[in-house]
Design goal:
Two copies of one chain form a homodimer. Chain A is α+β, with helices and mostly antiparallel strands. Chain A has eight helices and twelve strands. The first copy, chain A, has helices at residues 22-28, 123-132, 134-160, 163-180, 194-201, 205-218, 233-238, 245-254, and strands spanning 19-21, 43-49, 54-56, 64-70, 73-78, 84-88, 95-96, 109-112, 116-122, 187-189, 221-224, 227-230. A five-stranded antiparallel beta sheet of chain A has the order 1-2-9-4-7. Chain A has a four-stranded antiparallel beta sheet with strand order 3-8-5-6. Chain A is globular and about 55 Å long. The two termini of chain A are 38 Å apart. The A-B interface holds A 77, 79, 83, 85, 87, 98-102, 107-108, 127, 130-131, 134, 137-138, 140-149, 151-160, 199, 202, 240 and B 77, 79, 81, 83, 85, 87, 98-102, 107-108, 127, 130-131, 134, 137-138, 140-149, 151-160, 199, 202. Chain A binds a DNA duplex through helix 6.
DNA sequence: CGTCTAGTTGAATCGCATCAACAAGCGTGG
DNA sequence: CCACGCTTGTTGATGCGATTCAACTAGACG
């Protein structure tokens, strides 16, 4: 259970500023880099944020996209009554701010959940570069499109899935993302509070807590505070809903045994 | 209550095909058209769909965006268990298919809710044009960004709002969109079923039906089948939740009068 | 005429939110 | 050091709101 004090950043020096050239950014975005542009001398500024700081705030002028080089972030939206809704948990390689391109001001906020190193991609620069460097423009199209598709599947989850299924899917998606970044897919630390998770999933923090406890009791995961260990990814994937409390009560009325084995993979039960 | 047999299309002939030039498409997308391109002779094909037909289907090769010239559409996503989730109700001026740019196949389906005239915007053409015609590329960025922002507010509604508030917001947004297209903002026909609305809002069709009835009884709207008349948009805007049934029951126990006036604007009640 | 789909309405149930009490972790300051 | 407040997380009891199941009506269509 590593202390967070040793950051994983590669090209990190103790200064607050650092610059990346176009080739580095291109690699980050998985865009092929044509020879003709190899000597383009555009530089992109890095910015450093401490945990809790805002990368951008509601209403702030929009002039730049943000590429996450290291660290963890949450983005939030405020509804008409001022309550906040968590939209995403960006991490290394993700791009923020695309939802604000269409207007002059940011419609959401982004808050660092840990110390972060962020690369600024001024929108004007990106737009200009897209001329001569069409693969970049296409890459941005691709990024936004993927983001749209992700939001759509989130919507469908919000629409229909049970609390258990939502939490399970959330854990699996984190697991997947950590894996793609080269970390363990089965054990990791949550960077956000139960409240944040609840907001993200459309649940209350109590429900999230209870659900994690339930999955823990079933042995599908092991939870202790923010440390998560996924024991049975397949079961999580197939999970629709846990047996209802009433059902549980009835069953445990019958079998007074204290160790009741694997229920929870509900396809059979539902 | 007009028959639908008289379409509103302007440049419609009885043929199934028709072509638009770049200037027309640009105007549709509200993109300024530079002189240099005035004589660009790109043509965009129209396609005609009858109500119930699919504009594109799940898994179909992606090679084109779709610009709605007339008619009403729903787009749907299938979750892992095959149940469908309504994603949007595009109408005149909206662009479909942007969620599939990032991969070779459509991840969703689009179904015509009425007869439709659709302009095909081949993605390759758009991408190529974006070179020389940078405002077009920016416009696409803008469209996708706006779509992202819209999805985000939908997510936040799904997360927190009551059934009444969701239905109210839905009606208001339709009203707004009709208004922007030059139709009445207060009276219109729904083109989709209660089931579609429910799926779109994350509710069941019964709940939608009940909610519409309730709003009707309160006089905020008038409903009769698919015909909607908005009587008090302001009240709809401010609506958080209706008084609970239990509360209602209690109140009507006390006042046995049959005409109980305007409750429903719940800010005071919540 | 019967059949099918769309919509309405009622009654019962369930899942999650709400309210509340409590434990654990953590920094602060006496 | 412990006392203190503060945030985060856990767990229990209760109730509301939306779902579910079901019966019924109204149109559309052949």
């Amino acid at each position: 259970m590593q202390k967070e004090s040793a950051p994983i950043c590669t090209n990190w020096t103790s200064q607050n500023k650092l610059w990346s050239n176009l080739a580095e950014v291109a690699e980050f975005l998985h865009v092929p880099m044509p020879q003709a542009l190899q000597r383009e001398n555009v530089l992109f500024q890095h910015m450093h944020f401490k945990a809790g700081q805002r990368i951008h705030t509601l209403g702030q002028n929009f002039d730049s996209l943000y590429l996450v080089n290291s660290g963890f972030i949450k983005t939030i939206l405020f509804d008409e009554f001022g309550t906040e809704q968590v939209l995403s948990f960006p991490m290394k390689g993700d791009v923020l701010g695309m939802d604000s391109i269409h207007c002059a001001h940011h419609s959401s906020e982004a808050i660092a959940l840990s110390d972060c190193d962020i690369i600024l991609l001024p929108y004007k620069t990106i737009a200009t570069l897209s001329h001569s460097y069409d693969q970049l423009g296409q890459a941005i199209f691709g990024l936004m499109s993927k983001e749209l598709a992700r939001q759509q599947t989130r919507l469908s989850i919000h629409g229909s899935a049970s609390a258990e299924a939502r939490v399970a899917k959330f854990l699996l998606s984190l697991s997947e993302r950590f894996f793609l970044l080269g970390y363990s897919k089965s054990t990791f630390n949550l960077r956000m509070t139960r409240n944040d998770i609840g907001s993200y999933l459309g649940l209350t923090l109590e429900t999230v807590s209870r659900t994690l406890s339930a999955l823990n009791e079933l042995g599908l995961i092991s939870v202790s505070q923010r440390h998560i260990c996924i024991n049975d990814a397949e079961a999580l994937r197939n999970l629709r809903k846990l047996p209802s409390n009433k059902l549980k009560a009835k069953i445990s009325e019958c079998f007074q045994s204290s160790t009741i084995s694997a229920w929870g993979m509900a396809p059979a039960l539902n």
